[in-house]
Amino acid sequence: MKKCEFCGKEFSNLGVHQRACKGKVDLKLPDLSNKEKSAPKVINPGVDVKLDQVITGINTLAGAVSKLVEMQTVKKQDVGETKESSEKKEPAYDSKKDETISESYTPPRYRQIVDEMLSEDFGIKVTDFEDRTEFQLDIIVPEKYSSIPKQERVKNDPDIRTKIIPRALGENGVREWCKLIRMNLNKYFTQQGVASPFSNITNN
Question: CB–CB of 17/29 below 8 Å?
Fold first, then answer.
């Protein structure tokens, strides 16, 4: 009797039994080679989640940097264009710096009217307003003709008779103002008992 190395039992005809027993054993043994090939890969979910978070953070940071660079580029372009346009922009017209247009320009005809209605001793100043339809007429009365004592004037300023005249009146407005000044001075000299230097002027 000999013992079977596969099942551990004793048989007289061991050779025949071992062949039969070995076939049974082979049928029961699993195929480990296929299991190894088909065995699923073990994945650590915690590591994968952290890796995804890192990748997402990197992408977000890269997008923010790209946006910042784009904004800086646009800003530099805008500054450059603004500077260039300001350099090319023509300066605003300033009538005060234009010698051909003066706010105190006195038309020759106005000067002539003052000379005829009063005398050449009287001063005249015309001030124009850009945003108005009138002009200012100042008649400067010489000291020898003034009816206003110095002590009654502001800071001893000259005797200036000012009138705002519509542009539409023009020469007629100047003439009427000179006429009123002449009447006032005639009245003053009459009250003083002195002959008026304007009594012989007959211009209307």
Answer: no
In a domain, 70, yes or no: no
Mean pLDDT, the chain, rounded, equals 76
Would you state the structure tokens that stand for residue 6, as one six-digit string? 């596969």
The domain of 174 spans: 108-191
Q: Is residue 185 part of a domain?
A: yes
pLDDT score for 109: 94
> How many domains does the chain divide into?
2
| 27 domain residue, yes or no | yes
Q: Is 169 exposed, middle or buried (0-12, 13-18, 19+ CB in 10 A)?
A: middle
Q: Indicate the SS3 state at residue 30.
A: coil
Structural domain contains residue 59: no
Which stretches in the chain have pLDDT values below 50? 90, 92-102
User: Taking the mean position of all CA atoms in its chain, how far away is CA 18?
Assistant: 104
Predicted local confidence at residue 97, as pLDDT = 43
Provide DSSP, 88-150. HSPPPP-GGG-TTS-TT---HHHHHHHHHHT-TTSEEEEEE-TTSSEEEEEEEE-GGG-SS-G
- For the entire predicted model, the pTM comes to 0.48
Local structure of residue 204 (DSSP, 8 states): -
